[in-house]
Structure formats: C-alpha cells, structure tokens
Design goal:
The complex is a heterodimer of chains A (402) and B (213). By secondary structure, chain A is of the alpha+beta class. Chain A is 48% helix and 17% strand. Chain A has helices spanning 18-49, 83-91, 154-163, 174-177, 214-223, 245-253, 264-304, 306-314, 319-328, 331-356, 369-399; strands spanning 55-56, 59-66, 97-103, 107-112, 116-121, 125-126, 147-153, 182-187, 193-204, 210-211, 234-239, 256-258. In chain B, helix 4 (102-110) runs parallel beside helix 6. Helix content of chain B is 33%, strand content 22%. Chain B has seven helices and nine strands; from the N terminus they run βαββαββαβαααβαββ. Chain B is globular. The chains are: A alpha+beta (402), B alpha/beta (213). The A-B interface holds A 1, 3-4, 7-8, 10-11, 308, 311-320, 395, 398, 401-402 and B 51, 56-57, 59, 76-77, 80-81, 83-84, 95, 97, 100, 104, 107-109, 111-114, 153, 157.
C-alpha cells in the first residue's frame, strides 16, 4: 500500500518565497508565450508565402540565367550553363529538378500567310515536357512530320493583341490562335529553305518562349545547324518553394539571375524568418531562465523543509516515492501556466487572422498542431527536471549524517 | 530474522575499546524473540551502536548483517523498505515532527505499513497517559509526553527488531514501567527481538541476555 501524500504535504514549507515562486510562474508563462507565438508566426509565414507563384503539383518552376557582365559580353559560351553546372544545381536539396531551355542554332523565319501578312526571323526553344504547364497530347513531332506543334507564351499573345490594331492586323483570341496555320522556313548552312507548317497547340503562362517538341529541335540543330546544342542560356528549376531563402542565397552566391517577381517575397521571408527565429530563441532563453528560477525556489523549499524530509526518510519513507510526490505537487501549476500561454497564443492567432490578415484562406484561425506538441514537451520536460532535482537533493540528505 | 554483528567498532573509537567491551570488536548473533539489554555508561557509544544498526550512520569498521545480508550492500530504497517492514526504533532524541500534532506524527508513520487501526492508536495513547494530547502540537508537549509519542510511533509498523535508545530518559519510574509493559506486549505480538540500550538504572526489563558495551 502506498502512503497518502496528504499528511506529508504540510511538512513542506511552501509559505515563504512566494515572490520568487510567482516570478518564476510569470516568467515561464511569458517565455512559453514568446516561444509559441514565434512558432505560430513561422508557420503563418510559410503558409502565406508558399502561395505566390505558378504551381504545378505543389512545385514552383523558376527560370535562372547567368548575369551578362562586361567581362562575359563578347563570349556567349560563358553566359551559358554547362552540363556540370546544371548537375550541381540538381544536387541541391532544395531543388527537385533542373531542365535546360535549348535554343535553335540555325536560322528560322515565320510567316502567317494571308491572314496575318508579316514575315519575321524568330527563335524556337525546347524543354522537357514535365516543366511545361500545358502539354496537349498533340505536342509531339517525329522525323517526316510536316507540321510542328508549338506552345507559345501567353504574354506574346497579349503583346501581339496590343500592337496589332496599330498595324491593321486582326486581334486574336486564345481559341482562334490554334486555328492559325503558320509557315516556318528553316535555313540550312547553305541557306537552302526547308518549309514546315506551324500550329500553336497551347499557350503557356510559365515559360516565356516559343516552344517546340525537343525531338524537332534536336533534329533541326543536327541537320541544319551542324551539331546538337548541349548548352543552355536558361535553366528551369523545379522547387517546392521559390521563396526558400536557402535557394535564393545559393543562386545569389553563384551569381545566377532569376525572375524577381517569382521570388519577391523571398527576401522579406528571409528577414521575417530571422526575426521570428530570434524571437523564438529569446523565448526559449526566457523559458530556461524561468525553469532555473523555479529550480532555485525548489531547492530553497527543500532546504527549508530539510529537517522534516530527512525525518521522513529516517522513519522509512522511500526517497523515490517522496521525490516523485514532492515534484508532482508543482505539475498542476506548470500545466496551468503553459495552458494559459497556449490559450493566449490561440487568441492572438485568431485576432491576427481576423483583424490583420482579414480571414485570408491560406491561414487558419486555430494554432498549428506543432504548438500542442511543444506544450506537451515543455510540461514533460519540467516534470522530469523537477523530479530529477528533488530526487538528487533527497538522496544527498541520505548520505549526510542524520 | 537474524541480526549478526562482526567485529564492529566506530571509526572514531580507539582499537583498545574492544578489550573492555562485550559488543565492540565481537561477533554476536541476535535472533527473533530475544530480549537483549545492552548496558552502557555515558560516552561508550550507545547511540552510535543504535544508529549503525538502524543504518543512518556508516562510520564503523566491521559488518552488520540482517539475515546474512550486509547492511553496507543495501541500496537506499532497500534500507527504506527494511525500516518500513522489519526494523523499528525509539530515538533518544525522539525525532518527532515538532509542528505537527501527536496524532499526525503517529499517522505519518502508520501510513507506511499500517499494523494498528486508528482506534488502536487512541487506546495505546490512553494506556501511556497521553490520550488527551492527540490534538496537541508536539512542540507544546513535555519531553516526557514526546518520549511516549515516540515509543507509540515505533508500534505503528510491523518489525522483527525493535531498537530502543534510552527510551525512558525523560520518564518517571511509573510511566517507564507502563511503557515497558507495552513494549513487551507489542514485541511479543510480532515475535520480535528487542535491543534495549540504556544506562544501568532500568531494572524492570526482563532481558534474556545482557551485554556490557
């Protein structure tokens, strides 16, 4: 039979040191509050900034190019990505895929027959299909096909529709553009013309280019331009978060340029993450200091109750039972303090969502589950450290002459 | 249960103490049911002996064995359990919770391993003349009353050995005799060995063995 602690409790002299005890409770509450708020704001930040770029299956696709400097201006090779550089990028943990945007190395002309009377030199590019946001089943080409399917940036159509009226050309809708039959003139090294039909099969919001199937471009580069193109001036990166500060720092270090619009939140995020990490760290220090203060209070309490505790041990009370019961006395207080901090964090999150973020759907009015886990961990940690401390002190009593 | 002491001597005593003592430096065995009187003048190490046997001081050479198990090998938890179930004591300096009532002092001990009912506590207190003191704070009681509380507290648990360290030093003869009567009754109930360490003066302890310290 285990004895009841009811008769033992009055033997602990808890009357004194009230100020120090309350200071430690308040300190613990503030520390936990800071810690929980920092974690919640960190989570909020992740949710808010993950939504700001064109995503496919939860990924961001961002183009990178090399910065053209005065030193590299004359040498196009230096401004291109080699295979080794592409491999280095794909090895980074924050990059889930890399695809080069291959360009043509032979001359091309485009005309649109009688509907749109113009003829212009132009360029085509090709990229792995998984990097294109809209890939219809007709986007394939094999040797012998006369028609080349094309995917054009939707920005190009927008620009065309802006200047077309000024030149007396008809404006085109997304639906009509696919019915246009374009004529593509390819020139080989001897400037002989080879004619193909071009058909716009889709528009892309992601890639600012005129895309053709890679099979056609490889064939054209080999047959008209002498050799296949291996280097690319642009690479597309597939990443879970285009605003990942680690990614941005890496690209900056390599002096690679990227679309600022897609990563404009990255810097802000970097700064805010720093602020919240600092705040979280500060909270953690306050928690540690509060626990330390409480441990001093506990040591003082035990020192004041030393005679009684020593006598309990002398008459046969088990040190393990006694220490676990003494430590248990403070667990309800710890639970209350930490739950108060949790409740305040919940109120703050609700207010932040409603009054600051105006109920944005990316955020939740409720705190993140990780906060509950941290709360449980803190209660467990304080319980264990208290038990350990009291047990150590009581064992010391045993070793002293009584 | 058997208690064995082998060549026991406090480390702060000179070896020559062994020559004139029937306990220090000797090999002795005490069995259940024995009533052992250890007579000792002041300064001969009465309290040291009791404290060594109870395991609260370890400043001795030699060995103390309970059922052939050396007390030095007991863990802290084992000693606590042994004191709860097998070994009881009456300290010379009483060692009561001075700010608790008489009843609370007895109840704190009783809870560990109850041998008597709360009703029996009342009866035991009545027999020793402190029945009306149950709700008194111990520090307000006289030394004589506190000593009687300390004696009754030792009955609150089962035991195989009862260690008495000058248990009647603050009692008159009449009260000492009443207390002794109760001690013998309680020891008989448990078939326990009583080790009664005192100055020469108590004559009414019906010892089965006497040793001079």
């Amino acid at each position: 039979m285990n004895p009841s602690f009811k008769h033992i409790k009055p033997l602990l002299q808890t009357d004194g040191n009230k100020t120090s005890r309350w200071f430690s409770y308040i300190g613990l509450c503030i520390g936990v509050l800071l810690l929980l708020c920092s974690i919640q704001m960190f989570v909020n930040l992740q949710s808010l900034l993950r939504q700001n770029s064109t995503r496919k299956n939860g990924y961001d696709f961002i183009p990178v190019r090399k910065a053209v400097t005065n030193e590299t201006m004359g040498n196009a090779e230096l401004n291109m990505f080699s295979k080794e550089e592409a491999d280095e990028l794909s090895k980074q943990s924050f990059i889930d895929g890399v695809a080069p945007l291959i360009a043509n190395n032979f001359r091309l002309q485009l005309s649109a027959g009688r509907v749109l009377e113009f003829e212009t030199d132009f360029f085509i590019e090709a990229i792995a299909n998984e990097f294109i946001d809209t890939v219809p089943s007709s986007f394939i080409w094999k040797e012998g096909d006369e028609t080349i399917p094309m995917i054009v940036s939707s920005d190009f159509l927008e620009i065309y529709n802006v200047f077309a009226p000024g030149y007396g050309l008809p404006q085109l809708s997304e639906a009509t553009i696919s019915s246009l039959v374009l004529t593509i003139k390819c020139f080989d090294r001897q400037q002989n013309e080879i004619l193909f039909k071009g058909n716009i099969v889709a528009l892309s919001d992601r890639i600012n280019s005129i895309l053709v199937p890679k099979t056609f471009l490889d064939w054209g580069n080999t047959n008209f331009g002498n050799k296949p193109v291996t280097k690319a001036s642009r690479l597309y990166l597939k990443t879970k978060d285009a605003n990942n500060p680690e990614l941005l720092s890496f690209l900056e270090k390599k002096n690679y340029k990227l679309n600022k619009d897609k990563t404009r939140f990255g810097r802000v995020k970097q700064v805010l993450q720093g602020v919240f990490t600092g705040l979280g760290f500060f909270g953690l220090i306050v928690v540690i200091l509060a626990l330390l203060l409480f441990s001093f209070y506990l040591q003082l309490l035990i020192a004041k109750s030393k005679d009684n505790l020593q006598l309990l041990l002398t008459i046969g009370y088990s040190p393990t039972w006694l220490s676990s019961n003494v430590a248990k006395q403070f667990i309800p207080v710890y639970i209350i303090v930490v739950l108060v901090a949790l409740a305040i964090t919940q109120i703050l999150q609700w207010s932040f969502h409603h009054f600051v973020m105006y109920n944005r759907p990316e955020l939740s009015s409720f705190i993140h589950w990780s906060l509950l886990a941290v709360t449980m961990l803190l209660i467990l940690l304080s319980g264990i450290t208290n038990h350990w401390l009291v047990k150590k002190l009581l064992h010391n009593f045993y070793k002293q002459p009584q | 249960m058997q208690l064995q002491i082998k060549n026991l001597l406090p480390t702060y005593f000179d070896e020559s103490r062994k020559n004139n003592s029937e306990v220090w430096g000797k090999d002795l065995i005490f069995n259940s049911g024995e009533l052992v009187k250890i007579v000792a003048p002041s300064g001969s190490g009465k309290t040291s002996l009791i404290h060594f046997l109870y395991g609260i001081r370890q400043l001795f050479s030699g060995n103390i064995l309970y059922d052939n198990k050396d007390l030095k090998n007991y863990s802290i938890e084992n000693i606590a359990a042994f004191r709860k179930d097998n070994l009881s004591i009456v300290f010379q300096d009483m060692r009561l919770f001075s700010h608790q009532t008489v009843w609370e002092n007895l109840e704190i001990k009783r809870q560990l391993n109850p041998f008597h009912t709360p009703e029996k506590i009342q009866e035991l207190c009545e027999r020793l003349g402190i029945g009306d003191k149950l709700n008194s704070i111990c520090s307000n009681c006289s030394y004589g009353e506190q000593q009687r509380v300390s004696i009754i507290r030792s009955f609150m648990q089962p035991f195989d050995f009862l260690l008495l360290d000058e248990p009647f030093s603050h009692l008159d003869n009449a009260n000492s005799e009443k207390a002794m009567e109760l001690i013998l009754e309680e020891a008989k109930k448990r078939k326990a060995c009583v080790l009664f360490v005192d100055l020469e003066r108590v004559e009414f302890f019906p010892y089965t063995r006497i040793l001079h310290l």
